[in-house]
Amino acid sequence: MVGINTHSAIKNEPVFSNVRGTIAMAKTSDPDSATSQWFFNTVDNSNALDIKSNSGGFTVFGQVLDNGMDVITEIEGLKLCNSIPTVDISFCTDPAGAENYVTIYQIVIVDSSSATAANLNPPKNTLVNSGDSSGSSSSGGGSMAWVSLLSLAIFSMRRKIKLVK
Fold it and tell me: Whole-prediction pTM value?
């Protein structure tokens, strides 16, 4: 794997809620640390990812359109090995090669302007400026698997897997 060069970190702007089908930036505990990693919300993660106490919330910058969630659901159904979706691997102890990882080769950007918020339709994040809801239940852990998956995709694995039906 070869790392990629990144630009400066972006300013965290948690305007939209981390609901199913949204795409958000991954970051560290520093709210303004997102650079090149992002993830799909496969469930409603708003109770965990929209709150101020979670490093200021997570910036949603896009959403999956049309039948794209079918592809995401197909990836989500793959066997996990150390939290990473894998293909054709029997046990996590098997040596994994590039052929065992999902690689995303193309993502269609519908609106490439820098101000795309006007065209997004997920609900607004109402939790980031309200009281802490850390007592709420959520399944935010599932999104972290997607962070790992997308990290691998960014590092240019070589196997192409047909995901579109």
Answer: 0.69
Q: Please check whether residue 125 is in contact with residue 14, taking contact to mean a CB–CB distance below 8 angstroms.
A: yes
Q: Is 152 helix (H, G, I), strand (E, B) or coil?
A: helix
- In the structure, what pLDDT confidence band is assigned to residue 153 with cuts at 50, 70 and 90? very low
Contact 79, 86 (CB under 8 A): yes
Q: Is the sign of the CA dihedral 47, 104, 78, 148 positive or negative?
A: negative
Q: Tokens 């640390």 sit at which residue? A: 33
SS3 of residue 81 by DSSP: strand
Tell me 16's DSSP state.
Answer: B
Say what the pLDDT of residue 131 is.
Answer: 60
H helix runs in the chain, sequence order: 46-49, 68-76, 141-154
Domain ranges of the chain: 22-154
The answer for residues whose C-beta is within 8 angstroms of residue 26's C-beta and 6 or more apart is 34, 37, 38, 39, 58, 147, 150
CB 37 within 8 A of CB 24: no
